[in-house]
Structure prediction request, 267 residues.
Amino acid sequence: MSLLESAIYRAIGVRPESDGIKWYSVLFFELFAQYDNFRNHTIYDGVLLPTDGPILFVGNHTSMFDTAKGYRIAQRSGRIPRTFTRESLLDPTKLEPTSVLERTGRKKDLLNSSPIWVRRIIAALPAGVEAIPVSRGGGRKESSELLQRVRDQLNARRLVALFVQETRNKEGKLTNLMRGAGLLARNNPDVPIFPVGITVRKPHRATVGEPFTYNQMIIDPKFAELARTNFIVLLGDRISELLDEPEKIDWHEVQRPILLAPKRKIP
Prediction:
């Protein structure tokens, strides 16, 4: 590591933790977080993350600024988060599938129509903080590879951050939760999970809740059945506790019953 890199990391207040971390990516996310604070006046409260050891922190998804908030939450403890990033953003040779655009309600993806050199520059930024690629149109093989990537990061005592919603909800509501987040917890049952609630009324607020593990939930009589059968609902409950009252009410009255309902068989 050069003296310049060391000086940048010290000034920002983070540890690179591996050779895969690049100073220019860390600097970009630091500036992005500062811009978020300037624009949205984000307030950070709740518990601080541990300065060492494997961590999963999960939050709701409201806007592109959530990535900046996730970075700042980790940076406050001197750490750099490994976030989930769509594969087409990390690999400039791949485009966002049309099926994914339709499912997420988007007419087009700006990167799909961008020149290859632009996509290469953009791809270098998340790659420089060891972002974890997600194939949103993938099948069982891709899911298995994703679980292994997460396990490798956690075994290396890293911090992994993800949003439990496939698409952003500008009103801050908990909708379209991905059941895969529960699978990650089950496959790493002793890793502490920190829920994060992001509210979007200015000033924005990012609140970190008390941690818990999958194994703690399945032995607690109050949560055992739900933890075993529908852990994503339990994650939603913990995140909703950190949101403003309207979003909390919406989750319990509208979204939670939908996720608890049995899956319908496709004819």
Remarks:
- Residues 3-84+158-260 form one domain.
- The chain has a mean pLDDT of 86.
- The CA atoms of residues 191 and 213 lie 6 Å apart.
- Strands lie at 43-46, 55-59, 82-86, 132-134, 159-163, 193-199, 205-208.
